[in-house]
């Protein structure tokens, strides 16, 4: 009887300890707006694995894809409030809080993809990220090249003239509208989750998207042509709020900051892989028509954008020169 009682008591103690351990685990929320096959989700998964191992399972990251926790703007707001712990957003969208960050989103800011990738890890971008953090009160854990943007639509746009008067969906941020206004189009803010129906129902004539996002959201089902303009090469950032730094121990916060770098590396790697593979896949499977455009004509039509922004005081010429000098 005594042995049985001791065993029972030991079981209660061990059970209580295990329950306490389970309760002690910190669960964090990562929200994003695309599918599980997209670079953002792949990066988030890599980050979750790193943080779990680094903290010995004390911190876990739960990932909510497909806009389950809200659209891009809502996710950013929720990281400020602490309702969501991590969100991914582009420099163009975030430039609403700190205008100079949006310089990379202006038309043809980069010579090519290697130039954009070099900028993603440059001191120039880190300085702009620091400026955004001071302006917003939030924290950027990582940055990466998130892809070149093209035009999904019901017709091809091989030259700037073909875009005149066309309603093209863009996110609700000023820097997204610059390219389309420069070529005479009508940039139309719309939540990403509404674009599929917008294209199918003819509410918009086209959508501004990178191949990875367009493919993940199956835009090729409702767009007849993808015009490869390469007019914007976006930087994306992983965001969190000050609440998380206050909530975690110093060691666990270190694991999260390391995880931010893991996230950016994995997301960028997948972005590049997808860019190189998706055009061929869409063409080979006859999912939609993909056409090359007169890039030089688009560059010429938008050439004054940087000068106009410098004259308006949005950012200094020295910043333009520093970005162009990156190799």
Please describe what this structure looks like:
- This protein has 327 residues and is α/β, with parallel strands linked by helices.
- It has a single domain, classed as Bacterial extracellular solute-binding protein, family 7 (D-Maltodextrin-Binding Protein, domain 2), CATH 3.40.190.
- 49% of the residues lie in helices and 20% in strands.
- The protein contains 14 helices and nine strands.
- Strands 1, 2, 3, 4, 5, 6, 7, 8 and 9 form a nine-stranded mixed sheet that branches.
- Helix 2 (39-54) links the parallel strand 1 and strand 2 (59-64).
- The longest helix is centred in the last third of the chain and has 35 residues, at 250-284.
- The protein is globular, with a radius of gyration of 23 Å.
- The termini are far apart.
- The relative contact order is 0.17.
Give the key terms.
single chain, 327 residues, alpha/beta, D-Maltodextrin-Binding Protein, domain 2, nine-stranded mixed beta sheet, 9 strands, 20% strand
Mean pLDDT: 92
Largest sheet properties: 9 strands, mixed
Number of domains: 1
Unreliable stretches (pLDDT < 50, length at least 5) are 16-22
The CATH H-level superfamily is Bacterial extracellular solute-binding protein, family 7
Beta-strand content: 15-25%
| CATH topology (fold) name | D-Maltodextrin-Binding Protein, domain 2
Structure summary, number of beta strands: 9
What is the oligomer described by this structure?
A: single chain
Kindly name the structural category. alpha/beta
Taken from the alpha-carbon principal axes, the silhouette is globular
The level 1 CATH classification is: Alpha Beta
Q: Can you count the helices?
A: 14
Helicity, as a percent range = 40-55%
